[in-house]
Amino acid sequence: MHRFGNALVGVAVFAVFAVLVAGLVNMLRGGSPNLSQKLMRWRVGLQFVAILIILGVLLLRK
């Protein structure tokens, strides 16, 4: 179960990082401001989910 929890946390953190990088790249290249805004909203949502996953994994380990 520990491996699954670790993998789930890794996927969640990677998803947050990927969306963050995509938003920054779009913003730095002068892309659509609407797309950058949408990506940053997705990042906030994914951060919330990642925190919930991390808390869940920590609670299950006790």
Characterise the protein shown here.
There is one protein chain. The protein has 62 residues and is an all-alpha fold. Helices cover 90% and strands 0% of the residues. It starts with a helix and ends with a helix. Helix 1 runs antiparallel to helix 2 (33-61). It is built from 2 helices and no strands. The protein has a domain at 30-62.
Secondary structure layout:
Elements lengths: L1 H27 L4 H29 L1
Q: How is the biggest beta sheet arranged?
A: none
Q: Assembly type of the shown chains?
A: single chain
Structural class: mainly alpha
Order of helices and strands: HH
- Termini, distance in Å? 12 Å
- Per the principal axes of the C-alpha atoms, what is the gross shape? elongated
Strand tally, please?
Answer: 0
Unreliable runs, pLDDT <50, ≥5 residues?
none
**What is the helix fraction of residues, given as a range?**
over 70%
Beta-strand content estimate: under 5%
- Average pLDDT over all residues: 92
Helical run tally: 2
- Radius of gyration equals 14 Å
